[in-house]
Write a structure and sequence with these properties.
This protein is an all-alpha fold and about 190 residues long. The chain has helices at about 5-20, 45-60, 65-80, 90-100, 105-120, 120-130, 135-150, 155-165, 170-185.
Length: about 190
């Protein structure tokens, strides 16, 4: 009904780009697979191409909105042939735009993940610790990962416990338990 509305195109692009990774998101036994660990050969290149084409079309209309920016972030991930090749600086710039256009704690938390990749886990932890998201399991999971990367294992284990206590998703809970256990066994 709104074929030339950029936010509608942006939402469609976002859905396509997220769907393109569905097959790689879980292991054969149903376990959660982090984006960095996903087999990109299992991503659907036709959905990525369709989503990226819509993102480019949105960019030409030059009327940015939150869905378009989120789709652009996903398009950058889709461009990288390997996790190590991800253009985190571009993703951080896009999150800066998203936070300016549609500020939210979740956008700020996701931006912190990009900050960790560009500026390091110390800078990201300072951002995360400034957010009031104590009831959100991903806040604690991201905080745990940052603390782990900083070698603050005891604090990371506590943050993993907080994340586990707040998630209702069995796959996420199992992933968080395994992450916490890896700290203990290290």
């Amino acid at each position: 009904l709104m074929p030339d509305e950029p936010e509608v195109m942006g939402l469609l692009a976002l859905v396509l780009l997220i769907e393109s990774r569905r097959a790689a998101r879980t292991s054969p036994d149903g376990g959660l697979v982090r984006l960095a660990d996903q087999d990109r050969g299992r991503w659907d290149p036709s959905l990525i191409a369709e989503g990226q084409a819509l993102v480019r079309r949105c960019l030409r209309l030059n009327r940015p909105g939150p869905y378009q920016i989120q789709a652009a972030i996903q398009a950058v991930h889709g461009d990288a042939p390997a996790a190590a090749a991800t253009d985190w600086r571009q993703i951080l710039q896009l999150y800066d735009q998203l936070v300016a256009l549609a500020p939210s704690p979740v956008a700020a938390l996701n931006r912190a993940v990009a900050v960790a990749e560009v500026e390091g886990p110390d800078a990201a932890l300072a951002i995360v610790d400034g957010l009031d998201m104590g009831g959100y399991h991903l806040f604690h999971a991201i905080r745990a990962d940052l603390l782990r990367r900083l070698g603050r294992d005891a604090e990371a284990a506590q943050a993993y416990e907080a994340a586990i206590a707040r998630t209702e998703n069995a796959a996420e809970s199992d992933f968080l338990r395994r992450s916490r256990q890896a700290l203990i066994e290290a």
